[in-house]
Design goal:
The protein has helices spanning about 5-10, 30-45, 95-105, 120-125, 165-170, 200-205, 210-215, 250-255, 260-270, 275-285, 295-300, 320-330, 375-385, 400-410, 410-420, 430-435, and strands at about 10-15, 20, 25, 50, 65-70, 80, 85-90, 105-110, 140-150, 155-160, 175-185, 185-190, 190-200, 215-220, 230-235, 290-295, 305-315, 340-345, 360-370, 390. By secondary structure, the chain is of the alpha+beta class. The strands form five sheets. The chain has an eight-stranded antiparallel beta sheet with strand order 16-13-15-14-18-19-17-20, sandwiched between helices. Strands 6-7-11-9-10 form a five-stranded antiparallel beta sheet. The chain has a three-stranded parallel beta sheet with strand order 3-5-4, with helices on one face. A hairpin with a 4-residue loop joins β6 and β7 (about 85-90). Bound molecules: flavin-adenine dinucleotide. Flavin-adenine dinucleotide binds near residues 62, 121, 122, 128 and 174.
């Protein structure tokens, strides 16, 4: 196992560039036994270890100034049970590699988020989700997992083996152990038809229950300072259904997420007074379009414009109130907001620290272009979201503490008890985790 790395590689920053740290060592285990050894050595040395994925969290959740464990070289055997649609992969595999592997075998993930750059372990550890009223977060597709705990014990967990650990470890911020292998319940490969259209916000909100009932996956982007949204629905269709390639929407992709949008953001940062006009022009420039494609290519889009983000999962009924408050917040800020607000939906689940634990959720995500002020905006929205019993996304900026989080997660104390059992020496903790979960 690679042990102490030179300082240049020990320096780390996340995708957004708002979290930086320098580890004392980088550990790249090749086997599960190496992971056990890494954990036990850290305990013996009074040090700490932090597993990291691809660094796509905005919070310090993957940050460490102690020992960093990267799972990139951990090569557990890939096993595919085509009949039962169960696929077992190394936990550090990036989602884009997983998607390619599944496609080669006629399979797919039932749902995905906006991008495919995260590792499987990283994505499930923070409750990463896509949209779809009948779909939980990605962790709900986990059928079993292998965890090296804070004592170096190797636990295989599922609904039948260590069910409590299974209920907690599927969203556990790296606090219960190092995930080494994950078994995912997949579905047969499928084609999605995406339909995107501009619409008035009021119309979409009035039609929301019907919209969610009619489509497999619904999301929309609200453009600040306007009453306009871009609605996106994805539906499963036969593979030969109206095969419109994605490039026909190049301008829309670029407007919403990449080069053109990056230019607009730079202009808005240089001349903030233009932000409302830029938002209105962006909202008007987006057109209606329909395209079909392999599910993962439709779910995921490359994101090249850097931003910071906060996202809250709310009880779904609270969405109208949260959106109305957000509009007032944006209008009252002493600076301008350059990014649209993203709204998504998920089904309830039973994972202890999942944002969707026990309830239907609406997610509201606020963004700001890198280099622009964001804290007063995010903090004001956080006050609204917490008053509505919102739960912050574990990978996105927020200022919640253990005492506050305990109020909104019914199984929070059970998680803390399990954490003490699995990591009695707190070898897996960091200052951020202490803030979130307690000492
Ligand atoms: C451009 C962009 C788009 C995004 N889109 C979405 C989206 O659509 N939906 C959504 O919900 N989120 C989204 N996110 C957030 C992202 O999915 C999460 O922050 C996710 O956790 C990042 O995964 P990662 O592999 O980068 O993990 P990291 O950020 O590196 O780590 C996240 C957590 O996982 C833990 N971890 C990593 N590996 C292991 C392991 N082997 N064992 C135990 N713990 C481990 C880390 O300790 C840390 O606590 C987006 C982020 C960005 C930057």
């Amino acid at each position: 196992m690679a042990r102490t790395a030179p300082l240049s590689t020990a320096a780390w920053s996340n995708w957004a560039g708002n979290q930086r740290s320098t580890a004392t060592a980088i550990l790249r285990p090749r086997t599960v036994a190496d992971v056990t050894e890494a954990v036990r050595s850290a305990v013996a040395d009074g040090a700490r270890v932090r597993p990291v994925g691809s660094g796509h969290s905005f919070t310090p959740v993957a940050r460490t100034d102690d020992r960093r464990i990267e799972l990139t070289d951990l090569d557990t055997t890939v096993r595919i049970d085509r009949e039962r649609r169960l696929v077992t992969v190394p936990a550090g595999m990036p989602l884009h590699r997983l998607n390619a592997l599944l496609a080669q075998n006629g399979l797919a993930m039932p749902n995905l988020g906006d991008i495919d750059a995260q590792t499987i372990a990283g994505a499930i550890s923070t409750g990463t989700h896509g949209t779809g009223a009948a779909y939980g977060c990605l962790s709900t597709f986990v059928e079993a997992l292998t965890l090296v705990t804070g004592t170096g014990e190797v636990l295989r967990c599922s609904a039948d083996e260590h069910p409590d650990v299974f209920a907690a470890a599927r969203v556990s911020l790296g606090a219960l152990g190092v995930l080494t292998e994950v078994t995912l319940r997949c579905v047969d490969a499928f084609t999605l038809r995406a339909h995107e259209r501009p619409a008035p916000l009021t119309e979409v909100m009035a039609d929301l229950p019907a919209l969610l009932a009619r489509h497999d996956h619904v999301e929309f982007y609200w453009f600040p300072y306007t009453d306009r949204v871009q609605v996106k629905t994805n539906d499963r269709v036969p593979a030969d259904d109206r095969p419109l390639p994605r490039w026909r929407g190049w301008l829309d992709d670029e407007l919403l997420s990449n080069t053109v949008f990056g230019g607009a953001c730079r202009l808005g940062r240089a001349v903030p007074a233009l932000a409302p006009t830029i938002s209105a022009v962006s909202a008007r420039a987006l057109t209606e379009r329909t395209y079909t494609g392999r599910s993962d290519a439709v779910f995921c889009t490359p994101r090249r414009v850097r931003f910071v983000e906060m996202e809250y999962g709310l009880p779904r009924a609270a969405l109208p109130e949260a959106l109305a408050a957000l509009r007032r917040i944006v209008d009252g800020l002493p600076f301008k907001v350059l990014f649209p607000v993203e709204v998504r939906f998920t089904a309830p689940d039973d994972i202890w620290l999942s944002h969707g634990y026990g309830r239907e959720s609406a997610y509201l995500a606020v963004h700001q272009y890198v280099g622009m002020p964001y804290e007063p905006y995010f903090r004001a929205f956080e006050r609204v979201a917490t008053a509505l019993d919102g739960r912050p996304h574990w990978g996105k900026l927020h200022w919640q503490t253990a005492a506050e989080l305990a109020e909104t997660y019914p199984r929070f104390k059970d998680f803390q008890t399990l954490r003490t059992h699995l990591d009695p020496h707190r070898v897996l903790t960091t200052p951020h985790l202490t803030h979130l979960l307690g000492p």
